[in-house]
Every structure is written in C-alpha cells, then in structure tokens.
Amino acid sequence: MAVDNTLSPHGGELIEKISSPKNAPHLAAGLTRIAVRDSIAREVINLCYGFFSPLDGFMVRSQVDSVVKNMTLTNGLVWSIPIVFDVSSQAIAEVGVKQGDSVLLTYQDQALAVLDVAEIFSYDRETMARHVYGTADQDHPGVMRTLGLEDTFLGGPVTLVNSPVINPPFDQFWKTPRELRQRFSELGWSTAVAHQTRNVPHVGHEWMMKGALLSSKADGILVSAVIGEKKPGDYIDEAIVLAHHRLREAGFFLPHIHETSTLMWDMRYAGPREAVFHAIVRKNLGCSHHMFGRDHAGVGNYYDTYAAHEVFQNLPDLGIKSVLTLEWWYCPVCQSVAYEGHCGHRDQKEDLAGTVIRRIIDGGQEPAPTTLRSEILEIVRECADKYNSGSAFVTPEYLEKRAPVFSLPTLDCCTCTKHRPV
C-alpha cells in the first residue's frame, strides 16, 4: 500500500504522548523502575513531544530492521536512523522486566516516562552500523556509538509522566513542535527554511542563511541548534545558541524573519542518512525547506562532500524542499564574502574555516567584519567567561560541571530509588 511521505507532520499527525498532571502519578505508581542515561532521556522527550513523529516510542525489531536495511518504517514511510533503547541483558534480568510489562523510566532520580514493553530483542550492531553509516570502521564516531550499545533492546510506546523544566539560557529557545508551529503562525510564516547548526556563526554562515532565504523565498529562517553529547574541542552549547540569537538582536536579520531554537539530539555523523533524518524532524517542526551545505552531518572522509545533496534524488518527495548550497568564503579580489557558485577567484579564496574562527576567539584579537562579526565575538567571550572558565570550547571541566539543559521536578506520589543508568 502506497504511503504519502509529503504529509506534514511526517505521516500526517503530530504524535504527542504526554500524560496529564492529574493522571501521571497513577500511571507511574508501583511500576518497576529503570534509570536511563542522558541520551535516552533526550530521546524520550523527543518521542513524547512529537519531534520524531510518526514514532510513538522506541522501535521494535521489525522497525529497526526495516529502517536499517530499507530506510523506511514497516509501513513504508521514509525513516533513516534507528531510535532504540538499549539495555544490558543482565540489567533486564536484575529488574525482571518481560514483554508486556510497563516500566517507569527515571532520570536524575525522578520519574520521566512510562514504557510499555512491546518487545525485548537483540540486533546485530555491526549490521546496524554498516547500513546506517556505510562503514564498520571504528574510527567513525557513529560506528563506535552503535557498537557500544548494550546487547538487548526494549521496544514499545512511551508516555511522558513528568515534563522537563528547561534551564537557562536554553529555556527561551526550546520549543516543542506544536509550540514552534504556533510561533511560525504568530510571525506570519507559512514557509520556513531550517538551518541545522552545531557552530558559532561566522559571516559565511550568515550569508549562507541569507542566500537560503532568497533562493527558497521562505518567510523566515529557523536556526535549529543541536544540543546534545559533547566532546572536548566542540563549541559550548550556550555560545552556539546565544551567538545565533545575537545575529538577530544586532540587526543582521530583521526580527520577523529569524528565529533561534534548540533540538536535543546526539549527532550520529551519518552523513546522507542523517541529512534525511534532519529533514524529517524539521518538517515536524513546521519547516517547508531545509538547508544542506557541504559535508552535512559528515565526519572525516567517509562521505562525498555533497552526499547530503544527492541522497534525496533517490527518495520519494518528503514534503520538505532541500535548499542546496555550495561553499561560502572570503574573496580578497571581490573584497567580500563570496559564493562558490558565483566567484571566479577560487584559487585566491580565504576559507572561513572553523580553525580560522577558533584562532580569533582564542587569540584575543578583533576579527575583520568579513570573518566574524564583533557582536558575535563579544557574546561568545561572555559565554566563555560565564559558563566555562574563559573558554568557548568544551573542556573536561565543562563536561563535569556544566548545568544540565533540563531538569525534572519531583512527581508528587512517586518516590524513585537510584538505579544504575542503562
């Protein structure tokens, strides 16, 4: 049976699984508890608020197998990344969970969600990695992530019983799909182009966004900053989000055409497959277009430079249009930021590479307006001082001491005991 991949949200319905405050304590009462790690907690929240529509929970084996091998759900809807809850067989035995049970997932020693266990299964992690990443090379961070999963998976629907409290400075930027769609309506947007980012914006990023707005003829641009797992050397989350917001505050974008938001997602670096996933999620947020530049969601030399451009050619219409962009650089001949598709001075280009920007941020020098806006440098240095002892980049100290992006309040009649995160 043919399915319509163009529907927005994906599959045609925004799947929200959130218990009412009145009913939540009753759902949670008396259930076996399993404590979950940060990454699983983030995915529970994404599932329950509809970021991952049409999914209503963690995938069962048939869904995983279909996504891994066919890049579709079992009903034929395109889906490219497995969303799984891995648990060690030992942990399952210790808590005595079996198929058909309901369990309470806890985080930060607080109730988070109820998982109705539809299936307990195993899946070959190397097979998963080879299909999703196109390689089993353990130097690929996504492969290492997948091979490091526990040996057993719990699949089934999840229902949020305790809504997260988003902590500053992220509280002003995190919105659910429903809230973002409402925000678009308030702004008068019927079309929006998504900009996926994990970086502080330099001038090339700024012009890439402006170019996408012009070419798409969208009403506005949604900066969707990825907040998730970090490794030393990455930009700190606070600097990323507040720097993008500063572009609008400083007037580089009119306030009615630019919106900054966050997405709690742990990058898989799956290249073209992750590009498809990003498009689906941003469609669920209400976007009509998605920007894809060079090496989108890639790492190292595992994927062609524009693999994320090519993958959509072999897929059905997903109902969100790709805005494909080449490289932006500074051209000393043109004496301005230039676009690869326009500038004839490629041999004289000056890359706006991350290393150049990092030297400016770390070096204490004032940037040229052609590389990094002084307003951006100012807010990045403020974030460095406020959130990370003077560094805008992730350090071991930052990973140890940073405030959580979200917290959970105490659910009145549910006293959670501590468990080892699984």
What does this structure look like?
The chain contains 14 helices and 17 strands. The protein is α/β, with parallel strands linked by helices. Strands 1, 2, 3, 4, 5, 6 and 7 form a seven-stranded mixed β-sheet that branches. Strands 11-10-9-12-13 form a five-stranded parallel β-sheet, with helices on both faces. It has a three-stranded antiparallel β-sheet with strand order 15-14-16, covered by helices on one side. Strand 14 and strand 15 form a beta hairpin. Helix 5 runs antiparallel to helix 6 and helix 9 runs antiparallel to helix 13. It is globular and about 70 Å long. The two termini are 38 Å apart.
List the helices and strands and how they pair.
Blueprint: H1 24-28, E1 32-35, H2 38-49, E2 57-58, H3 61-70, E3 85-87, H4 89-95, E4 102-107, E5 110-116, E6 119-121, H5 125-133, H6 141-147, E7 152-160, E8 165-166, H7 177-187, E9 192-197, H8 203-216, E10 220-227, H9 237-249, E11 258-264, H10 272-284, E12 289-292, H11 307-310, E13 321-324, E14 328-331, E15 336-339, E16 350-351, H12 354-363, H13 374-387, H14 396-401, E17 406-407
Parallel strand pairs: 1-4, 9-10, 9-12, 10-11, 12-13
Antiparallel strand pairs: 2-7, 3-7, 4-5, 5-7, 6-7, 8-17, 14-15, 14-16
